[in-house]
Amino acid sequence: MLTFSRFAAAVASAAVLLSAVSCGSADDVLAPTDPEASGRFSDLAPFAAEVDAAALTSAIEALPVAEESGAGYDRSLFPHWSDADGNGCDARDDVLIAQDRSGALSEADCDAAMAGEWVSMYDGVTVTESGELDIDHFVPLKEAWDSGAGDWSTADREAFANALEPPWHLVAVTASSNRSKSDQDPAEWMPEVREVWCVYVWAWVQVKTEWGLSVDEAEAEALLGYAAEC
To answer: How buried is residue 182: exposed, middle or buried, by Cβ count under 10 Å (0-12/13-18/19+)?
Structure first.
């Protein structure tokens, strides 16, 4: 079972992984670079990561392979949009503020419609009104349940549903693209924008690794196929 101490260690190790989005140019998929040089965001994603095909392939091969449980899921089993850090903003609003590119938003804007600038990495659409956005769990809640979270405590599932770090765990995307994705894994769905495929697979593998989640055979095969093209 995942514990908070295990999750905290995973987040601590993952928090240094920011760099510039590209494929096949890093010595290691987890290699950090100077955030001053790379910036907080890539052109299309609300985080930046440098992806190396060989290292990504190794990370995929290290994931446990298991059949999905496929039973017992209910969204209410993952209490979400809580204010775990006590700053007066729920997790949805925290993500909107963190991923806003205008720089004009702060905690004072919580609990209201926000005007800013967000780039939806799934379809490349620039959005200026928060009401047009969903906050997507990069690994959907049902996918997490079927991949091991069904054995977690409610507290651990709440931590997963509201984790603000690393910045690829929750992403602000257009409602239409999020609903197109639904609870599908990369064997079933990939973003409309092909330019983000490498970093999408990278982030998916990061979340699965950080939280000790498994992959099914079709998912593993798809991930390996995409990684080979990075």
So the answer is: exposed
